[in-house]
Recover the amino acids of this structure.
């Protein structure tokens, strides 16, 4: 690989790092061709981008980035693959599901919405992170409960102000 090609790869990686707020670094070495193909297919279905990268180039891209990756460059040893996703917990769920059949991929670390997670022992915690859509659903559910109380009070009170206040005070 020439110096110009390396420079181009670093630029592309820097753009990817800037464009994605959920970045997982994993080790998929040792997977056979069929298992690797299954992993790539699962990533595609889950809308996760998977790329195998050279550690030195990824480290230089992290340095060139405006983001603070903390200790994440320290895990760049051995074989490294990067997973990019719109949903913070999607790669963690995919890795956990995939590990039911295989020992790999191993989670080296993750960068989720400005937070850094290091080590495979963080996988269960990353699976439990709620996505933006899940949080919005929880908030809507919490907001609907008081609105339902008001509507039921309106219906049971006969529509008078004193009846509404009496019904709401009893609940």
């Amino acid at each position: 690989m020439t110096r110009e090609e390396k420079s181009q790869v670093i630029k592309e990686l820097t753009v990817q790092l800037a464009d994605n707020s959920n970045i997982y670094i994993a080790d998929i070495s040792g997977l056979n061709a069929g298992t690797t193909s299954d992993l790539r297919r699962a990533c595609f279905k889950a809308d996760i981008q998977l790329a195998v990268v050279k550690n030195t180039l990824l480290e230089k891209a992290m340095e060139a980035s405006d983001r603070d990756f903390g200790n994440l460059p320290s895990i760049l040893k051995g074989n490294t693959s990067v997973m990019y996703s719109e949903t913070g917990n999607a790669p963690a769920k995919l890795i956990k599901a995939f590990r039911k059949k295989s020992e790999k991929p191993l989670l080296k670390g993750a960068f989720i919405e400005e937070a850094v997670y290091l080590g495979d022992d963080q996988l269960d915690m990353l699976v439990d992170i709620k996505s933006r859509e899940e949080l919005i659903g929880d908030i809507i559910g919490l907001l609907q409960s008081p609105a339902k109380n008001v509507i039921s009070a309106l219906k049971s009170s006969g529509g008078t102000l004193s009846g509404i206040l009496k019904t709401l005070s009893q609940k």
